[in-house]
Amino acid sequence: MSAFVVKRTRGTVEVGDGVTIPAEIEAKCTHDGYKIRFVAVFDNDAGRYMVRVLEVTAKTAPEVTGEKLRTIPVASLLRDVVMYKLADTPLAGRRPPEDLASTASTSELLQWVSRIYRRAVILGDPPAQSVANALNVPRSTAGRWIMRARDRGLLTVVDRRAPGRRED
Q1: Whether 54 contacts 74, CB under 8 Å
Q2: Residue 52 · residue 39 · CB < 8 Å
Q3: Neighbours of 145 (CB within 10 A)
Q4: Per-residue pLDDT tens digits for 9-30
Q5: Partners of 120 in the β-ladder
């Protein structure tokens, strides 16, 4: 798969805690002889981007078939484009310091928890597990920190995919 090109973005949407991201992203790329164009729109109800337009054109491949369409990694392409567009926001994929859990103030730690959680929701990743992985702590510890971040008002976004979660 070759690199993608973001053709345009349109509008912005606030995703919680004062962070804004593009409301719509149009991107193009090539994959296995096909030219691909897609438009992704941020869906507030889902809390993530959804592909609303997908165009596939045979560039060097002989034809577009159903079998070939199923080989196009739409979710992976979308994830790469969204990560690229998040690069200039507080949600960029910067790694937290290695010893954050033991050296940071509670406030700094919970800000990192909030940032990691929000990014995971937007990318469609499991947020609590993402916090645990990024901070190298057990899932249960990440869950407690997420609750503390919510209690302090640092984390207002909710993973709407999780059953039984309350809306903030």
Answers
A1: yes
A2: yes
A3: 25
A4: 899 998 876 788 999 999 999 8
A5: none
